[in-house]
């Protein structure tokens, strides 16, 4: 900050304070608004769980309803703002004879958006009653611009979105991480989430190829760059993590555990387990049993 003074023969008659603005990196990835919609319900309804490759933000404008995450329901009410991270299975549910109205936006380029304690859940819910006029101003202005499609409305919507996101981060101490919109990254995140949910099943490179419509060589190469490990080894890693939990917390036979976590034979399980942990499943159980 600099203070500038202008003088006359009679002395100081004006002072000006100038504040320098730090330079912005305009090459940095910026969130992109994909859509914005208004929804109104006054009856009970159940939609199906679904996922997106982008973040969704809901703001409840009237009434209350339910947000379902992996079949677990969370109540949401007026002025609640809900942020659902990419690839989180979710849906909204209405309640019979109860008004439920909300605005929802799809935002691309946001790779992680939540409070730290909500990381595992993949969703953040916070009430913005105190700041409702501020939040609604941005949301309704974006809606108006999208409906009227006046000159340069897309640029205006993008700018409003960025101001809104900054305000959300300030008001609720929400973390925002973004990265360049990259199709390879999207495919790798999809593969990672699929393996996380299905690692006990028989997953092959052919399975992942059908899932992403990519050839197997490209999948292995892209996933190694993304995760530092091949997708099949990542699947084995997930199986072994589950096996460790079962070995230390249950009395199941080792052969049963091998089958439950997805290995086709006990010998292959034992071999993979010892390679990863430098100990046998039986010894691991003895050393880590919680019973």
UniProtKB/TrEMBL annotation:
Superkingdom of this entry's organism? Answer: Bacteria
- InterPro entries noted in UniProt: AraC-bd, Homeodomain-like_sf, HTH-like, HTH_AraC, RmlC-like_jellyroll, Tscrpt_reg_AraC-type_HTH
Looking at the record, the residues that make up the HTH araC/xylS-type domain are 189-287
A single GO molecular-function term is: sequence-specific DNA binding
Q: Which UniProt keywords apply?
A: DNA-binding, Transcription, Transcription regulation
SUPFAM superfamilies tied to this protein: Homeodomain-like (SSF46689), Regulatory protein AraC (SSF51215)
Recorded protein name is Transcriptional regulator, AraC family
Native organism:
Holdemanella biformis DSM 3989
Task: Print the organism lineage.
Answer: Bacteria, Bacillati, Bacillota, Erysipelotrichia, Erysipelotrichales
